[in-house]
Write a structure and sequence with these properties.
By secondary structure, the protein is an alpha/beta fold. 41% of the residues lie in helices and 14% in strands. Helix 1 packs across helix 12, helix 2 packs across helix 12 and helix 3 crosses helix 4. The longest helix is centred in the C-terminal third of the chain and has 20 residues. The structure holds phosphoric acid mono(formamide)ester and norvaline.
């Protein structure tokens, strides 16, 4: 981490015990075992340079439930959108609020914000990483299979994008097996992949069937992420054969679950029979964004 202020920028900034403690707190916040206005009087600024449904609502409602307040800032009506430097924004906001959540393109902007803010910064998605989503996914997996993640196998089918990179960081920290099937040219970030290979049990294949065989969790994401709209057609070609359909899902364990961070494109990266079928856990997964982010906010701002 960049300085003594605690941030939540990447899963790789946290150790196994810290991540498991956050998941345990999230479980207790969800069950009602923990709660109350522990962030009373505190404010979170939420910078959105990309669209959002889940991230915006779950952080805003999360702050309300913890007794605090969230301020929504979009490019269209903030000075950041007119080019005000990130470092100035970081310092100005630090004088008003107790934490900053940011969703943006370049991950370096998240890091820069954290370097210059004197309050905690949370990464609500960058082109490189989506750590809050992976925490919600891990919570969903533990709800299904119990708290220990060791011995589990997660299969990622599709783009080596921000989600895939964060799965690699999680596998490196938590010791589950991660098998990624990505088409050539769409691999995860090379440095993140290399680090995860050194620390964990990671396989990269071109064959979705090899990734999914016997897995506990099968997960995917859109083929063109936010900011890649121009590449959508080329990506449709490149990802042919990578749709998670019933036949592919059938190669996973009988008890396997399907996850997707959403929004999803039925008939592209996932067939309706899977995402709307009995193995799908997409709605508990989406709800868990609220609980696990509350756990993160309490950790950073409590
Ligand atoms: N999964 C996710 O981050 O959703 P939003 O883009 O709606 O926030
Ligand atoms: N990979 C997707 C995730 C959206 C929540 C994107 O970055 O657009």
């Amino acid at each position: 981490m960049s300085d003594s202020t605690k941030h939540f920028l990447a899963i790789s900034d946290y150790g196994r015990e810290q991540l498991l403690a956050l998941l345990d707190r999230a479980r207790k916040l969800k069950s009602g075992e923990l709660g109350g206005p522990v962030l009373a009087g505190k404010s979170l600024a939420m910078i959105f340079r990309k669209s959002s449904t889940r991230t915006r609502v779950s952080f805003e409602v999360g702050m309300t439930q913890l007794g605090g307040h969230a301020v929504f800032l979009a490019d269209r009506d903030s000075q950041m959108g007119r080019g005000e430097p990130v470092r100035d924004t970081a310092k100005v906001l630090s004088g008003y609020v107790d934490g900053i959540m940011v969703r943006t393109f370049d991950h370096e902007e998240v890091e820069e914000l954290a370097r210059h803010a004197t309050v905690p910064v949370v990464n609500g998605l960058s082109d490189l990483l989506h750590p809050c989503q992976i925490m919600a996914d891990l919570q969903t997996i533990t709800e299904e299979f119990g708290p220990g993640l060791e011995g589990r196998t997660v299969a990622w089918v599709g783009d080596g994008n921000n989600m895939a990179n964060s799965w690699l960081n999680a596998a490196a920290a938590l010791g589950f097996t991660l098998r990624l099937a990505c088409p050539e040219g769409y691999d995860p970030d090379a440095a993140i992949l290399e680090r995860a290979r050194g620390l964990g049990d990671v396989l990269l294949t071109r064959d979705p069937r090899e990734a999914v065989e016997g897995a506990d969790v099968v997960t995917t994401d859109v083929w063109a992420s936010m900011g890649q709209e121009d590449e959508a057609q080329a990506r449709m070609e490149a990802f042919r054969g990578f749709m998670v359909d019933g036949a592919l899902m059938g190669r996973a364990r009988e008890e396997a679950i399907f996850l997707h961070c959403l929004p999803a494109h039925r008939g592209e990266e996932v067939a309706a029979e899977v995402i709307d079928g009995p193995k799908s856990r997409i709605f508990p997964e989406a709800e868990n964004r609220l609980h696990v982010q509350k756990a993160i906010l309490v950790e950073l701002m409590g």
